[in-house]
Write a structure and sequence with these properties.
The protein is built from 13 helices and 14 strands. It has helices at 72-76, 88-91, 100-112, 202-215, 250-254, 270-277, 293-303, 326-339, 357-366, 375-380, 404-429, 434-437, 447-459; strands spanning 22-26, 82-86, 134-136, 159-160, 185-186, 190-192, 219-222, 237-241, 258-262, 282-288, 307-311, 347-351, 370-373, 444-446.
């Protein structure tokens, strides 16, 4: 059995007060100040851990995102002095897709490395777009032995990035060739990459690179962003190159295990040139996730690409007019390669709109080998997605001045919490190997399928006449 992969998390408090959903209003003049069982002491989430000993203090709870809005403090205070109101600053964070709740939960995971748990249940819509219209089938949850987090049964989360041959060849004596291609794998189906905005200094990039190294995964980065500061991350970094500039970075290419070329007409011709610089080099191709990408994936797979990396927009949508969701695009590309009998040879990565751990698991179920995380890393560094940096304004949390080690640990904590959630999903689905989860749509429930099965027998199919 392989050695169990473990991510070492460590408590990493934020530099600035977190923005919580609820603000506490206390009518302190009515507080008796002598309750032996003050509701602050009984808070199961320890929201008031720094202030319950001084119930008349003017300090507010330090980490408001810990509050799960159970309202126990409001209901059980004997003097009725507590009230909870929506924090107006909370409503201004993020946007329609990157909602304040996602930012809040990401902060919690980056701080503690733990899985967020809601004490008030789910209050959202039953269904939404994309991954929100898909649920995992937890039919095996009744088997307590399938428990990857606590170690009673091994669950593997490693994936390969190297190209896999369709068949083995043997010599006349029945032996395998002396030199087989190296198998390059990472211990979890997550790679990292800096987002297109919010990276205001080299310190942020170094924090991300340090996290990738601690996680034993890889980080994609523009070759032009390299400097001497990244010398210790050669095996971790994946330089992003273009057909018209990659020959300027031969030194970087030779120090890397993998490179990514931006897709362009005829890019396939450059594969042999790159492998001439470094035999065994893994070659990835970055493609915008548009309406033509499924056929292009077929062409690049046949040309010998090891990894295809598909870029959706920041909200997990197709780039183009039809604006399909990432969920549907992953399924289309996966099916195209399965039908062509080429799917086992190539590795598919997807980025854009991967906001939560459940998106990682659902992307793999739809057919991805792994995901590439970008904006959640920025949120882990306390970004509020306020958009000020995009407008050329100053950053309210001075993200460019972070401590590199602190930033690395925050990202490690976040991915550690995501890894544990993936183990929980796989254990509940009865799957012990993440590669087995790929394309396993039988372990998922899709809203459109449920509606068709439930309502088609009632309403029937409408018949359309051609006359």
């Amino acid at each position: 059995m392989p050695k169990k992969y473990h991510i070492e998390t460590k408590d990493s408090p934020p530099r600035f007060p977190a923005v919580g959903k609820f603000a506490t209003v206390e009518f302190r003049e009515d507080c008796a100040g002598s309750c032996r069982q003050c509701v602050k002491k009984k808070c199961v989430y320890n929201v008031f851990k720094d202030s319950y000993q001084h119930v008349i203090t003017m300090d507010e709870p330090e980490f408001l995102y810990i509050c799960q809005s159970c309202f126990r403090c409001v209901q059980e205070c004997t003097k009725g002095i507590f009230s909870r109101v929506i924090n107006p600053e909370y409503t201004l964070m993020g946007d329609e897709y990157w909602q304040p709740e996602i930012i809040n939960q990401t902060w919690f995971q980056a701080h503690t490395g733990r899985i967020p748990v809601s004490g008030a249940g789910y209050r959202g819509l039953f269904s939404g777009a994309g991954f929100d219209a898909m649920w995992t089938d937890m039919s095996e949850i009744v088997r307590p032995t399938r428990d990857g987090i606590h170690g009673r049964e091994y669950i593997g989360t490693s994936i390969e990035l190297s190209r896999k041959p369709m068949r083995l060849t043997f010599d006349e004596k029945g032996n395998l060739p002396e030199s087989l291609p190296e198998i390059v794998e990472i211990p979890l189906p997550v790679l990292l990459q800096p987002p297109a905005f919010g990276v205001l200094s080299e310190k942020e990039l170094l924090a991300m690179a340090g996290a990738a190294q601690k996680l034993h995964t890889m980080m994609l980065i523009d070759a032009g962003s390299y400097s001497s500061a990244f010398a210790g991350f050669d095996g971790t970094m994946v330089p992003r190159l273009e057909a018209n500039n990659y020959k300027k970075y031969i030194d970087i290419i030779c120090r890397s295990k993998m490179v990514e070329l931006a897709d362009s007409p005829g890019i396939e011709r450059e594969f042999a040139v790159l492998r001439g610089f470094k035999p065994g080099l893994l070659i990835g191709v970055g493609l915008p996730l548009d309406s033509t990408v499924a056929f292009r994936a077929f062409e690049l797979t046949g040309a010998g690409a090891d990894v295809l990396h598909f870029y959706a927009d920041d909200n997990g949508r197709e780039i183009g007019s039809s604006n399909r969701t990432l969920r549907d695009m992953i399924r289309e590309i996966h099916r195209k390669l399965v039908e062509a009998r080429m799917r086992p040879t190539v590795n598919l990565l997807f980025s854009g709109g991967i906001a939560m751990a459940e998106h990682m698991a659902k992307a793999i179920i739809c057919g991805a080998d792994g995901v590439v995380v970008d904006i959640p890393m920025l949120i882990a560094l306390e970004c509020r997605l306020c958009g000020r940096c995009k407008r050329g304004e100053s950053c309210p949390i001075v993200i460019g001045e972070i401590d590199v080690n602190w930033g690395s640990q925050r990202i490690v904590n976040l991915i550690g919490a995501w890894h544990n959630q993936l183990l929980e999903v796989m254990g509940a689905c009865g799957i012990r190997e993440v590669r087995r989860l790929r394309g396993e749509v039988g372990r998922a429930l899709f809203l459109e399928d449920l509606e068709r099965e439930s309502f088609a027998p009632i309403f029937g199919q409408r018949k359309v006449s051609c006359e």
